[in-house]
Amino acid sequence: MFLYYLLCAFGGAIIGVAVYILVYKLISKGQADALIEKAKLEAENIRQQKELQAKEKYLQLKSEHDNYVNTRNHELKDRENNIKSREGQLNAQSQELQKKSRDLDSQKGQLNAQKARLEDKISEYDKLTAQVNSELENLAGMTAEQAKKMLVENMKAEARSEAQAYINDTMDEARLNASKEAKRIIINTIQRTATETAIENAVTTFPIDNDEVKGRIIGREGRNIRALEAATGVEIVVDDTPDAILLSAFDPVRREIARLSLHQLVIDGRIHPARIEEVVSKVSKQLDDEILETGKRTCIDLGIHGLNIELVKLIGRMKYRSSYGQNLLQHSREVANICATMASELNLNPKIARRAGLLHDIGKVSENEPEYPHAILGAKLAEQYKERPEVCNAIGAHHEEMEMTSIYSPLVLVADAISGARPGARREVIESYIKRLKGMEDLAASYPGVTKSYAIQAGRELRVIVGAEEVSDSQAARLSTDIAQRIQDEMTYPGQVKITVIRETRSVAIAK
Fold first, then answer.
1. Using CA atoms, how far apart are residues 417 and 338, in angstroms rounded to an integer?
2. Which of 29, 97, 361, 422 counts the most CB atoms within 10 A of its CB?
3. Calpha distance 415→421 (Å, rounded)
4. CA-wise closest residue to 362 among 345, 348, 349, 379
5. Which residue ranges in the chain fall short of pLDDT 50?
6. 19-70, pLDDT tens digit by residue?
7. Do residue 327 and residue 354 come from a single domain?
8. What's the domain range around 317?
């Protein structure tokens, strides 16, 4: 019985499962049909949209194609009209050329007839000439060739004689005129060039408000004035002269640095050795900028353009140099103007002449290769900075130390002589004095360990500053003796020269 119930239950379960599966399949089939139907509708909608888009694209492309075809048709029609127009023009030109060809054929026939007549006349002329020549040969007793040679020889001799006489007269006249013209050009040039008389000083006066400023400049136990003299290489003379201090040095650059430094220190009020060194360094840089500005301003005033910046700096340095007491920059400007004036009179390029005249003494302010003469050194500098060959030659040959290959070289030579020879231009005594002081400084600077050397008190004292790390105290004592002995043996000087060797050690620390 239990088994029967168990079998019934199992059979009922199987029938339930079968019914569930049948019902599930029926339901799933209905959902699938619905999804398929929905998909078909969406596909139909998408197909219709794509057909509409394709039709729109087709219409757009068709419109663009029609426009393109119309445009090309118009262009072809215009080209066809142009071709027809050109064809008509060519036909007209062809007809005109045919007409000209017929005219030329007619003229050619006429020319041929004239040529035939001329040939007949030439033949007749040749016969008459031969007959005349035959009669002349019979009368003269020589052939025509012999007579021709004799006539040519006689004409050659006469022509030589006349040509030589003409050449001699022309050369004499040229020499006379050249001498007169050269004198006229030089005189006119000198008259048209007006410059100031150059007088160089070795002393600059620095004005002060009262004697209290003198004491501050001197400092405690003279430390300020010693620091200022050591930094600038200028002797500072503080005496009984009221409201003034004298700055003495043969180098104008040093005097200018000392003057500007003193001016800033007095205005600032802080005067001590550290501040003095700071101000002197700052003023030195400012003076370098001023030198460059002076060079630029000089070039602008003279209308000279395109100079290398290093040459412009050398021109600015001329302001602080002298040549036999004559300010070098003023001398160079004067030479430049004289060269330009003479070049204009001689129909040469005045710009090139002015350029060569301005640069002719740049070798004097260069610190490179001092063993060369200043003219040769100047030519090398100009060549290094890409100046024209004629300018370089004019610079190097203005003292005839180089062969003159440029037409501008004699102009610079003459202009330099004119500028230096005029009354009041130069003072030989100052130049020799400056050379003596410079020689003292160079002699001292040639020793190892020497950092700076300054000739002061008009050459009666030479101060030599040495590095404490390189020169000991005993070596400093021997150095002063050696320098004194060399000056005594090699140089000529009045009176006595005191050599002071300065050696100091500085220890600097900064608290932050």
1. 11
2. 361
3. 10
4. 379
5. 194, 196-200, 423-425, 427-428
6. 777 766 666 666 767 777 887 888 888 888 888 888 888 888 888 888 888 8
7. yes
8. 303-426
